[in-house]
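idk why but the lab printer keeps eating my pages so im just putting this in chat instead. protein + magnesium ion:
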Amino acid sequence: MPVEKKSVALPKAYGPGKLELFSPVQYLKGVGPERAKALNEVGVLTVEDLLYYLPRRYLDRSRVVKIADLKVGEEVTVIGNVLDVRIVRRRSARFVVTLHDGSGYLALVWFNVPSFLPNYFERGMEVAASGVVSIYGTLQMTHPDFEIVGDPEEQKFMHTGRVIPLYPSTAGLKARRLDSRGMRRLVFDLLEKHSGLVIDFWQKPELEKLALPELSWALKHVHFPETVEDAERARGRLAFDELFALELVLLARKRNLQLRPKERVFRPPGGLVEKFYSILPFQLTAGQNQALAEIFTDILSPHPMSRLLQGDVGSGKTAVAAAAMAYAVENGSQAVLMAPTEVLVEQHYRTLSGWFSKLELPLGLLTGSTPPGEKKKLLAGLAGGEVMAAVGTHALLEPTVEFKDLGLVVVDEQHRFGVSQRGLLKRKGKESELLAMTATPIPRSLALTAYGDLDMSVIKELPAGRASIVTAYRTEEKKPEIWNFVQTELTKGRQAYVVYPVIEESEKSDLKAAKAEYENLKKIFSEFPAGLLHGRLSGKDKIKVMEGFSSGRLKLLVATSVVEVGLDVSNATLMIVEEAQRFGLAQLHQLRGRVGRGAEKSYCILISPANISATAQARLEALTKERDGFKIAELDLELRGPGEFLGLKQHGFPDLKIARLDDFELIRRARQKGEEVLFEKGEPVSRFAHLLRRWGKSVTLLETS
Ligand code: ADP
Ligand code: MG
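predcted complex ->
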């Protein structure tokens, strides 16, 4: 490979033989400035980065089908040598590459010849082609996916393994001949000549206990495995390191909290909390009581609480939060509850002020639509300590919001906030206790990667006396019958939600569709007042619509997914979800949780077009049978994969490079190891400085957070 190195003056330290893991990748033999630029663009800056630039998948020769065994109509992968390359001109041009694998001949055919293709193939090259087999005189594959597996030059190593790594590529990389083939050469060379640079920071006995291979083995086999199983074992080791780095950060944050005993001392729950219990219109469930006991214990302990309260929709988390707030106030500290939408905040405000007014405890309210005069008064009250409890949206995070002594921070629907927002609010107090709440149950291992710095409480049961929710899945042709049914229910005095998806990427057209459907439904249900609720409404308008619905004036609420979180209108017994296939299962479960809140029987009807895939249908069917939020979360994770699950990235989940959120076993081991290292052995975090840097975690940040 020609490499222009002439113009580059090599710094001494990076001279030949002095290559280090941190050396810019440019100084690696076979790279040079041009290729380095293309590599930098995909995040490969150093020699070490190149080692961690992993194949996107592997081609397993043992799974490849011989040409002689091909069957028409099958989708398969074939590997063969290029025997002939030509453009055939009949009525229109076709580009044909003939492959031979010793058992037979296969024609790869392209119509409308793409310009780069003819130069791509050379006789004698080994090519892997995937596609559907057809027969036109000869066996052929039209427009197959293909990979150059090797050329005669490459044989020295490519033929030793039966598993071939395929690397992610970009136009920039390809322009520098760093397609899969080029990357293989580069990485192979690097591993061959410089694998000695890699130092494992885990000692052998540690690795044995963890049942993980050594780092140098893993790096070699993740690129050039003998078997697909080896590749997975190798990936597992690297993924473990990444997860360990993540857990270390989370656990260290937790340890830092524990190292600092707090000054504020709470007394055990007394008068105000007792009174709060007595004014509640219901008895707390065992789960609510258990959660509260855990919260009180945390708050009484010498370091600040960091607790996540998970409870399925409708399990009554608000009452738990309110009791905790009363407890903080009883001890002379302020308490604040933050929720992600104005609609939800308004609802909390109504619920909590209903309860707190009986305790003669005034409640502040702060959202984006709070009038300036009121806002000014409230801010003064919070700063001066006259206002002891408040609810609000993100508006609470503004720098002008100050507290006299903020003792408790409650964050509702906390997955809607980033970790940094959580921290921002908490830091408005000194050593504030933190209670985060979520109605989106997530599998425990996932919780450990996302919220590993939090302790966890779970409310399993729903309050007694809830009528059941019947869930049904129907295709669109059934709409007339569904609207009939809605009519019947509305006539009985019930209320209904009709929900439309509005997905960010196609927001405009989605919103248009939702509005059109609203107009349509207004006609169908002309005798029942209806409202439209969507994210683009001003805060005031949203609240007006919501109040109309919760007061019972509006009978029908057409809404986008803004109603997904938290709403509580017990007279609403119908939840109709259109285009349900576009929602995640966990999201649909949330929507369903908006009904079944009173004693009346409730219904959730999921509607999709008839032509959605069988898997998509199965997903919706599954929801009609499953009611347990945790099981649904797991199912969702399984069906959609972690990337899609809940839109994890927006919700403060870490961006993992090699590990996957469903590496449950590795997550468990990484967590355990992190606890052992930090809590049992009390090792300094600095021991893992290299590892943390490798995975983009800052050590300094850690020590001071
Ligand atoms: P979520 O956990 O989904 O936030 P909420 O706090 O909104 O649930 O509670 C759902 C409904 O259940 C509310 O109307 C609330 O008043 C009611 N509720 C809460 N706890 C109990 C209980 N122990 N018994 C009966 N109803 C309850
Ligand atoms: Mg809630």
